[in-house]
Amino acid sequence: MKVLIINCGSSSLKYQLIDSESEAVLAKGLCERIGIDGRLSYEKTGAEKETRDAPMPTHTEAVQLVVDALTNPKTGAIASLSEIDAIGHRVVHGGEKFAGSALVTDEMLAAVKECIDLAPLHNPANLIGIDVCRKLMPGVPMVGVFDTAFHQTMPRKAYLYAIPIEYYEQYKIRKYGFHGTSHSFVSKELARFLGLKLEDSRIIVCHLGNGASISAVQGGKCVDTSMGLTPLAGLVMGTRSGDLDPSVVDFLGKKIGKDAAGVIDVLNKKSGVLGLSRGLSSDFRDLEEAASKGNKDAEAAFEVFCYRVACTVGAYAAAMNGVDAIAFTAGIGENAAGVRAQIVKYLGYLGIELDAAKNAQRGGNVKISTDASRVAACVIPTNEEIAICRETVAVLKG
Ligand code: ADP
User: Which pLDDT belongs to residue 121?
Assistant: First the structure.
């Protein structure tokens, strides 16, 4: 099957066309600045990447441009639209309604709409993407793949916040978790790579990108994760603070003259390693370079980030009464060897010892712990598009 993967944001749209049997990417690209001016990039595998300005007042024009690029007689990856067998859509929040991926139907869309107040920035854009594809490609089956679904197996003790229970019952305030597609894909890939039986394994996945989260996966099911009601919780991130004393919101708000929403905005956009490094950068490449030149703020940001990851790994080892293997994934997890080395240093008590030469290796799945280590640590590149493709095919095959 040829599956089109759509990841629709408020002003951008990422797409990939994947052959589900070989899992080869046939073409991919990005629509940017939708509603502003518009820029399209398109890359057919094996050919050069094209980028051009193209007016995109709305997502409808963006999807139309993607379809035109894919079917372009000269450079297209397919001859006609009829070659697209299915579409897999990333959907950020499925609330408690979706514990797995779901076929797009009117009822499914109504349920996603009910989750809008849980993800007011993301779900509306995801819904627009689905709506436009339904109009432009009627009859093509579509599947929604949720960032939150994998975490729905968390037990109550992990997802309940200790606030009056009525607030959970009335407003569904609880821990949901995000990056679920990545945590699901990477945990399975890690078990396969190490030859572990997924049903008997205890795995910790560290998804360390600009947004970062950790999950504890026992027997293939998520039992805890570090993000919460929103992606602001848990680890220190590029620009997000992660966990802090909730009283900071009121205390800081009074000091700087902002209301709760204003402070939350600071915690989302100006905090994390960006804030700790005095605004230097949210990108670990810049921080590592600055730290190597003696920048103390960059050094502190690096330390706080790694320490929080290590403490969360420890908490999840406790949650599962042990751990068999740990995966590092996403931009930082896959590329920042220094970050991995620093985190693994904390984990000696679990019986993990770093193989420095392996840790310096680049690309693909790599075991970075020594063979003598009791717990394996590995780099497992994530691939959310392939994961969405697999989910789409699985739902359609029933
Ligand atoms: P997201 O999908 O959340 O935007 P990514 O998983 O793409 O994030 O990760 C992006 C981050 O990965 C960058 O901000 C940077 O901190 C880090 N990163 C990417 N490449 C490298 C590298 N070679 N060395 C260190 N860090 C890197």
Answer: 83
Nearest-angstrom CA–CA distance, 267 and 245: 12
Q: Which residues contact 191 (CB under 8 A, 6 or more apart)?
A: 197, 198, 201, 203, 220, 325
- Ligand 1 centroid to Cα of residue 347, in Å, is 23
16 three-class SS? strand
Which amino acids are annotated catalytic?
147
Residues 56 and 38: beta-carbon distance below 8 Å:
yes
**Predicted local confidence at residue 205, as pLDDT:** 98
Atom of ligand 1 nearest to the CA of 273: 16
**Structure token digits, residue 350:** 């679990």
Mean pLDDT by groups of 10 residues along the chain of 398 residues: 94 96 97 94 96 94 95 95 96 96 97 92 92 94 98 98 98 97 97 98 97 98 97 96 98 98 96 98 96 97 98 98 98 97 97 98 96 98 96 96
Return the closest-CA partner of residue 331 out of 225, 211, 230, 236.
211
Give the pTM.
Answer: 0.95
pLDDT attached to residue 104: 98
Residue nearest to atom 15 of ligand 1 (CA): 283
* Strands of the chain, DSSP E: 2-8, 13-19, 24-32, 39-44, 50-53, 86-91, 102-103, 142-146, 202-208, 212-218, 221-225, 325-329, 366-367, 376-379
Ligand 1 neighbours by CB, cut-off 6 Å: 209-211, 238, 282-285, 330-332, 335-336
Choose one of 14, 92, 283, 289 to mutate for the ligand 1 pocket test, by most ligand atoms within 8 angstroms of C-beta: 283
Distance from residue 189's CA to the centre of ligand 1 (Å): 20
Select from 335, 340, 342, 359 the residue to mutate for testing ligand 1; criterion: most ligand atoms less than 8 Å from CB: 335
| 8 A C-beta contact, residue 193 and residue 380 | yes
Contact 378, 190 (CB under 8 A): yes
Question: Under a CB-based contact definition with an 8 Å cutoff, are residues 229 and 176 in contact?
Answer: yes
Q: Candidates 12, 90, 179, 210: which one to mutate for ligand 1, based on the most atoms within 8 Å of Cβ?
A: 210
